Amino acid sequence: MGQKTHPYGFRLGVIKPWRSNWFAEKDFSELLKEDLMLRRYVRQRLQRAGVSQINIERQPKRVTVEVHTARPGIAIGRRGAEVDKIRDELKALTSKDVSLNIQEIKKPELDAQLVADNLARQLEQRVSFRRAMKKSVASSMRMGAEGIRIVCSGRIGGLEMGRRERSEPAGRVPLHTLRADIDYAMATAYTVSGTVGVKVWICHGEVVAEEEGAARAV
Question: pLDDT digits over 140-184, tens only?
Fold first, then answer.
């Protein structure tokens, strides 16, 4: 049996918050499907904006969608025209009042999803996978990451046999430590020879609870 678990789900409720904030007893399945549809639609609609994560919060007859993006200018558009357009489209899809908030990601090199998407895009453009991985690791470490790990798997470089390639160890990525702030993401590169999966783990240090910090200070 495999011993792997999703780094975000493993820390959910400990140091990581939920990305969908709502509660329902009767319509749970319908609202869950609506959440998935909203995320899929916004990601597809803002492909060029570098979307990292989408948080959804629900009140009765109102949905708040928070989009974290590296290029807020593309998402907002000229004088907010793009935001208004997407908001109207989401209202038509859900038949509910939708509020759309755009949040800027100041350091895209420290966001696992953006690093994975960028690496997948480079693999699609036939860039050398070793060079691309090395460059991603170097830029993340330079921007202040405590550690980063990258794994690519599939027909890398167009070879007949699929294989798995890991980046050289950089810093520390303690996956079993619950207080370690691990950002994890997956992306898929659609190459000529087939799909190549990209996984990225970035460690942002450790999150220490306030009570624990106070106790240590004493």
Answer: 999 999 999 999 999 998 889 999 999 988 999 999 999 999 999
Instruction: For residues 15 and 209, give the distance between their C-alpha atoms in angstroms, rounded to a whole number.
Output: 9
CA distance 199 to 119: 10
Q: Domain coordinates of the chain in residue numbers?
A: 7-104, 108-206
Q: Return phi, psi of residue 117, to 5°.
A: -65, -40
CA 11, CA 182: separation in Å to the nearest integer?
A: 9
Spell out the CATH class of 108-206.
alpha beta
DSSP 131-142: HHHHHHHHHHHH
- Rounded CA-CA distance 31/216 in Å is 43
Distance CA 104, CA 72 (A): 6
User: In this structure, which CATH number among 2.60.120.810, 3.40.50.261, 3.40.630.30, 3.30.300.20 belongs to the domain 7-104?
Assistant: 3.30.300.20
Closest CA to 143 of 169, 117, 112, 174: 112
